[in-house]
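A quick aside before the break. I want you to see a complete sequence-to-structure record at least once, exactly as it would be stored in a machine-readable document. Don't worry about memorizing anything.
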Amino acid sequence: MDWIEVSVVADGEAAEAVSELFNRLNSRPDGQGGAVIEVGGFDGVGDDHQPVMTVKTYLPTGDAAAEELQRQIEEGLWFLGRLYPLGEPQVRRLAEEDWANAWKASYRPLRVGPFLIIPSWERDETVVEPGVTPIILDPGMAFGTGLHPSTQLCLLGMADVIRAGSRVLDAGCGSGILSIAAARLQAARVDAFDNDPIAVRSTEENAAFNDLAVPIGVALSAGPNEHEPLWAPAGGVPPAWDVILVNILPHVIMSLLDRGLADYLASGGRMILAGIIEAREPELSDYLAGHGLRVVRRLGQGDWVSLTVSRAA
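That is the input. The structure line, written in tokens, reads:
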């Protein structure tokens, strides 16, 4: 079978949005995402000079449904182009053998703070320097590849908050990158949930790549509600986490707070909130105060903000 490749050049922020579009419209029959990301712009020894990100998806040829899907994708890219700087979509035909490996050619390990995010097929060839924490990831599942500023800010915040023995909850786990990072930081317990079964499967598969010392307990869930506990209580005692990670969007963060997510924060614990566009920071800060939470640290990158919060004294 031949394939149609649709590719778009984008920066890290826009690449995540394009990937979400491709995954939503063109998920593979096995339930995994249909977006892949190439990262280029490295010199001969792998140093990052001007990284270039290309997001791709693949459609079978000779299928009327695929032609309609291609139209929807191109239409969606047009709308995204009004919000983000995107290159002109490129469309080309690939033979089966070219398609199988086309998206892997340029993807390289990515350093984010103390972490090195390594494509799963490069784990045996990649040298990890002392003091660097590796995260093995299949970048085919795009949300949480480490390219988006919000994911990077969350990873940087985690490195200063999570300690050996911490109990960590990843709310909206996506690819599982934050859960894996928590386990790498020697958390004693790591739990995660997402309302997307594709994300749950991706977290499980990516966790398996990393051979973690502590298992990640991942569940299909939209979070707490008034009828069911977030996690089954042990001995009638509701669970509590020392660190809760929420790398979503402000309106989802607010919804989770309204449904009691902060009630699961242990005494002295921290929540790291990311996915916050700077213009909405004041609104969210007021919302946090209304839930008895205060900001103890702020990180920023471009137009994106991450807030580390605790219970107000």
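Two observations worth writing down. The longest helix spans residues 64-80. The chain has eight helices and 14 strands. We'll return to this after the break.
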